[in-house]
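From the shared-data thread, chain only:
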Amino acid sequence: MDEPIVWRGQTMDDRSAERRAQLLDVGFDMIGTHGAPSVTLRAVCREAGLSPRYFYESFADREGLLTAVYDHAEAGLLARLVPANEAAPKLSIREIIDICAEYFEEDPRRARTLLREPLSDDVLRSPSSRSVAGVPERNHPRAGGRGR
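Structure, as tokens:
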């Protein structure tokens, strides 16, 4: 079996994953501080210190980066809200609110990414309607106020 080529102590896959993480970090910072309109291919590449070639190695387009940034921030919140152990008791509405508040207070860019930007950006609006909105209802049947 062929050994992966190692350059400066990293395989090609490792370097690619590192560049993707770098682009996600820059995208998150840009969305969280200046809003989704500030995220352009050139701006992201300039901030990351990478060429467009490496952008396209990880993302098909700007929308792909925006969606990945949103999904990453959302996954962090969901990891706190959804107990890893299925046998764990369900969270109360108060606990859900407290967890969300703590998550957003730790890094206000998270709140802008998950709550503010989806209101004005079509790319972010689409994924925001599928997951975070259903968390209270999944944890507490009456939380959604839909008369169940």
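The radius of gyration is 18 Å.
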